[in-house]
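4.2 Preliminary Data

To establish feasibility before requesting continued support, the project team ran the inverse folding procedure on a target of 181 residues. The structure was first converted into the token representation described in Section 3, and no sequence information of any kind was made available to the design step. The complete token record follows.
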């Protein structure tokens, strides 16, 4: 009976192989956009940040505060009476991801218990990904209204989605905004 034996590689080759085996995943995590996104998503879930997944095209003024919050029982929304340009009530929540896009927080604006606007502030490093995701998610419903300005606009059945075309200078300007018609 013959005994199977692994080839005995020279020590420099084995060392090089081990270095490549260790460095490759680190390179992927640090140097590629997909790697950074995967790392951020992993860290956000490990630290218990909430994730919200919803179809923006399903938003409408027929959604009430109770109905929206009921859909996301794990997310801690803080609501208060506050006069804004979109209504008289504001609900906010810290979120880790919105539709798999690393995010910071979400704001919901209600007027007479009717959803008037939604704003999601995402991580500035993922601006290009935000544009891509909105292209895929919202474009199916309607073509962009305007590609020439600094904002990209898409129509949805019950509103308009706005997103900066260029990378914003400030973190708080890195936002996806849905406004009811």
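Position-by-position output of the design step:
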């Amino acid at each position: 009976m013959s005994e199977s034996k692994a080839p005995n590689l020279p020590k420099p080759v084995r060392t090089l192989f081990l270095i490549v085996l260790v460095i490759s995943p680190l390179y992927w995590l640090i140097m590629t956009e997909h790697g950074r996104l995967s790392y951020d998503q992993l860290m956000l879930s490990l630290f218990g940040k909430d994730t919200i997944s919803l179809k923006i095209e399903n938003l409408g003024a027929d959604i009430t505060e109770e109905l929206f919050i009921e859909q996301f029982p794990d997310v801690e929304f803080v609501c208060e009476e506050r006069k804004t340009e979109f209504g008289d009530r504001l609900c906010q929540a810290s979120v880790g991801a919105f539709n798999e896009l690393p995010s910071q927080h979400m704001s919901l604006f209600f007027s007479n218990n009717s959803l008037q606007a939604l704003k999601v502030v995402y991580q500035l490093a993922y601006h290009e990904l935000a544009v891509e995701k909105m292209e895929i998610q919202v474009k199916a419903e309607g073509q962009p209204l305007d590609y020439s300005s600094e904002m990209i606009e898409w129509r949805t059945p019950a509103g308009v989605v706005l997103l900066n075309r260029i990378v914003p200078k400030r973190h708080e300007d890195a936002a996806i905004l849905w406004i009811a018609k």
